[in-house]
Structures
1.
Amino acid sequence: MKNTIQSILSKYWGYNNFRPFQEKAISSILDSKDTLTVLPTGGGKSICFQLPALICEGMAVIISPLISLMKDQVDYLKDIGIAAECLNSSLNSADRIKIMNRIKSGDLKFLYLAPERLRLESMKEFLKDVKLSFFVIDEAHCISHWGHDFREDYRSLGIIKDEFEGVCVHAFTATATGRVQEDIVKQLKLESPHFYIDSVDRPNLTYRMLRRSGNLIGRIVEVIKKHPNEAGIIYCLRRADVDSISEKLNSLGYKNLPYHAGLAGEVRKKNQDKFSAEKVSIITATIAFGMGIDRSNIRYIIHAAMPKSIEHYQQETGRAGRDGLPADCYMFYSGSDYRTWEHILADSSQSQIMIEKLKAMYNFCGRPGCRHRYLISYFNQDYKKENCQACDYCLGEFDMIDEPLAVAQKILACVKQVREKFGANHVVEILKGNLTDNIKRWKHDQLSVFSSLASETKVFIRNMVEQLLEQGILSRENEFQTLFIADLGYNVLSGEMIPRLAKPVTIQKRKEVEKKRKIRHDIDWEDIDEQLFEALRAKRRQLAAEKNVPAYIILGDKTLKDMTRIKPVSREEFSTIFGIGEVKLNQYSEIFTKIIKEYLVLETQANFIDEADKKS
Ligand code: ADP
């Protein structure tokens, strides 16, 4: 069997090896055991169920929450030569009948369905007469109230076990805490399922949390400039922010399209299609731009504001680098995002849980420490690396202060001495030792903490206050933004807990960081011919437009990069490229080797002219 699955992998997908967990998940499915697999985005979930379905007798039914997701997977399967279809509202009745006839005649290996369609009595009856290999529930976290993206229709999927006796159910998701996992098993009525829980870590993503101050557009532009011609998403909190940021960027010459629920359905679809087809590189969006994003080469995500939970952050940043190549995630956050969410969530039916999640998110932003470790621990997993080499903290982009406990205790003592009745500005002035009118009026110059941080700048002290707020050591409450000592603050006052405090980033530090970043970028592109890469990309874009599918369905960036390294000029050489299976070889070898040959001729001519110039 090992040889069979290995040869199917290389025949259809063109990969030489499985990722470690894939083989295990595949063999459980082949052993007819229910399974729950939790793998990060880009981890390679699809192969885990697509490959065994090719071996099992009958057709696999895949439940997927979005039409765009289904279309994407079906297009991909067809392009590698596998019979797959979806039944959804976008089809006319003639097409639907055609597909149903193909199902009846046992012609299809995969049928993609939305959960609401499976609930229809007529659909269930129809499927009961069909030989089914198994059911797959994709994006299974949608079934749980404890997850995000909760979908009422997913709740009804327990019927599969009741009505399709003996048919296995396999659940897949990218983000599920322990609680969500339990809920998935319970709701789907999985029978002694096998669990495959891989680390939710995304080592190819570099996380950076930056406090939002000054000119946000300028800072967004700085990021875009680091990624010329590369795909990126800018996430905003409100629709109005999307409109204004999108407009400003366009007026500055950074072409981008907006996406939010306030736009007409056809405008949204058009914008998303242009992004998928690589006709535009940047989308400015609210979280409505979600699960259905079908582009695997997104190289950066910018959060123009903080999301409401780590689950959301993980999901949104998870859209970057699905091809396994490096990608950057930048977050511009501020205390005002926290307050906006707090206000919005106060009315939610589960406000207490939501506020806890919000606090964890804010803490994640404001606590200088390894970002990968924090994310992984949040999902109850261990992080084994000492240094992730892929976050602002581990890349040395912070300067930690020497005596965090002493500084924090002085700030907390000040808040206590003013009896938790004043805001941050006043507290900063006291610690700095300024005789403002308010300080004279309240005689706060007589407090023992007065001028206890006199040697620091006001900017520094304010920055420390903000970090204590972000880390849940101080809290800011009521309409006057009064500072209070939070529960954790007492642990700091007693010396049981030492906060992590970093100095504000100086211009010098930013320059150093930039230099290091550039060196890393150059290493990523070391043996890749960027000019040839662009030529291959243009061809891919053209083919995608002709077939009306997203560009990555044709070939992924990893495949194009491999081509620029190996420069195959024959069918045989082309077959050794990463991601080239039998069908892709037949379809694309001639087209791409032709471009490479032409490029090599031009390169030789250019070298020849160079040599001649040198001699003359
Ligand atoms: P997920 O559904 O978990 O987000 P996908 O199934 O879309 O991930 O796979 C992510 C990427 O990894 C795709 O480009 C896929 O082709 C690639 N991939 C999956 N398995 C392998 C493998 N064994 N070897 C190489 N690439 C793989």
2.
Amino acid sequence: MLAYFIQGGQLMREQNVLITLFGATGDLAHRKLYPALFRLFQKGFIKNHFAVIGTARREWTDEYFRDVIKQSVQSLVKSEDELNQFLSHFYYQPHNVTDTHHYVVLKELSEELDAKYQIEGNRVFYLAMAPTFFGTITEHLKAEGLITEQGYNRLIIEKPFGKDYASAEELNNQLRQSFEEKQIYRIDHYLGKEMIQNISAVRFANRVFEALWNKENIDHVQISLLEQVSVEERGGYYDTSGALRDMVQNHILQILALVAMEPPVSFGDVRKNKIKVLEQLRPYTTAEEVNKNFVRGQYGPSVDGLKPGYREDANVADDSNMETYVAGKVFIDNERWEGVPFYVRTGKSLHSKETIIDVVFKEANSPLFCGIDGCPSNRISIHITPREGFCFVINSKAVGNTIALQTSHLEKIFDENFAMSSPEAYERLILDCIEGDMTNFTHWEEVAASWKYVDSIRQTWDSEIAAEFPNYAAGSKGPQSGYDLIERDGRKWVDRD
Ligand code: BG6
């Protein structure tokens, strides 16, 4: 019997599911997935009727696997008993993804666990590994009968989903041989973040914003995904990806779509409305347009010499031309956003970590207060990380015998308890998948439109001989060209320090 329990004042039901995790020995599983599953277990979303089969090439035993998981969830453990209960649901199966026989073994184990935990055929296949193998795995899952007739079958895939439109389409076609679109859960972990999910609440649950959310009232939007970290151990991957593919094609365009989409009538409409926005992005088709509207950068060593430059990374070519910073000006060709620029930027090895959306309104035009200098713009800022919250910037009269204005920041930054009680992105997304809610996963048509948009930028950059890299120091605010891009339009990035 599946248990019912109360969570946040709502009646919830335990889920029964068999999760087969490809890439069980990998970093993502260790850092994110096991802790996420443990939190779901602690809350009761998975309890007695679930099992996880971890697979990877390494010859681990169940015991060793459980030990590894134990380490990864250690900081969350409240009782040994609870931990042991949780671990008892994990099984390990060494697996070579191209070997048909291994799928036969996996099928037997799946059926055994299904019966043992009364899972009723509900299966999630989680591919947390190199995308090269996605097609092979899904083909075998179908051919060897791991996809069940009885319950649901869902596929979770990690990014990158292709490296351009053509490869993404090829991958999608491979997946579609075995799974239907409604069974494919493409992860963009940003969509699992508390404050990203809050964008829609701020927009649609406040008349004061939604009524003004258009070209008549909004001057421009800024989306900044600034990172302090360098490429760390991922130089090899990053040197084939760069910031444009790594952050713009997915996270930045997803955020832009949420900020810009038409109001959905139901949660079921969110993806449809995002697709429309992404298909309405104005493409830059000539090199001149690309270079006018998008700039790139690559970090060199920090000024004090303590942080190495990108090209010094062991897995990066000495003369690499790959960008670690991108800033761009994006337009959406529709009625609501005609002429409103969305400035976006992202970069590695910058001076601080800041993920933030700034929606800057047009100035008021009161003849009483906004004389020659104009009035400062109102702004709503949505802080995503590391601070989580909002800030609404408004003008009022300065105190005293004056008509001068003062600008106030009405700020609500959530405290540590908020972060601690808010589910981590992976926890939320895994639960959504188990519950069959696709709202926060990217539809193929979103992926396709995003790739088409960034492909022309990538192609232009790839066809140019060499960029003048490095052009910003590690630990700095990024290249000057990122500032010039917005300042030549008479605007400024809203920098926090
Ligand atoms: C990943 C990128 O998708 O997002 C990384 O591949 C990046 O390069 C990371 O560091 C940023 O995510 P977050 O949640 O730390 O902002």
